[in-house]
Amino acid sequence: MDALKYLYYHCILYKSTQMAKPKPDTTPATKVFGQRLRKLRMENTKLSQEHFADSIGIDRNVLGRIERGSSNVSLLTILKVCEGLQITVSELFDGFEAEVNSIQE
After folding, report:
1. What is the tens place of the pLDDT at every residue in 35-60?
2. What is the CA radius of gyration of the chain?
3. DSSP letter string over 71-101?
4. What number of helices (H) and strands (E) belong to the chain?
5. Counting CB atoms within 10 angstroms of each CB, which of 27, 53, 85, 103 has the fewest?
6. For residues 36 and 2, is the Cβ–Cβ distance under 8 A?
7. Rounded CA gap, 32 and 59, in Å?
8. Is there a contact between 73 and 66 (Cβ–Cβ < 8 Å)?
9. Residue 54 and residue 12 in contact, taking contact as beta carbons nearer than 8 Å
10. Are 78 and 84 in contact (CB under 8 A)?
């Protein structure tokens, strides 16, 4: 390998190892939402993450990140989750703000 190729290869390799890894979007709100979702999924459907995710049309990895509280969830996903759990959005978020505030204090 000539010197230019060697230098280029190692600069690219070094840069790729130094790139910042994305941080999860974990907040008290995402943690509370994830805990609620996991609890309701297990109580209402008795389905695994994978089977529940398939039933509502989202990727199982996405559902896992949401339940761990490391992903911010979209409105469309919230609507799919509620439909799959056979609950309303209001039921999902009942007492949510108070629970989030209790974690932050």
Report:
1. 999 999 999 999 999 999 999 999 99
2. 20
3. SPPPHHHHHHHHHHHT--HHHHHTTHHHHHH
4. 7, 0
5. 103
6. no
7. 21
8. yes
9. no
10. no
* Domains located in the chain, CATH noted: 28-104 (1.10.260.40)
- For the record, the structure tokens of 1 come out as 């390998």
**How confident is residue 73, by pLDDT bands cut at 50, 70 and 90?**
very high
Angle between helices 49-56 and 60-68 (to 10 degrees): 120
Supply 67's token pair.
Answer: 């339940």
CA dihedral (45, 47, 91, 97) in degrees, to 10, reads 150
3-class DSSP state of 20: coil
Task: Please give the sequence-ordered ranges of beta strands (E in DSSP) within 1-105, or none if there are none.
Answer: none
The separation between CA 32 and the C-alpha centre of its own chain, rounded to angstroms, equals: 12
* Pair 31, 99: CB distance under 8 Å: no
Cβ count within 10 A of residue 80: 17
Looking at residue 10, its amino acid is: H
Indicate whether 4 pLDDT > 80: no
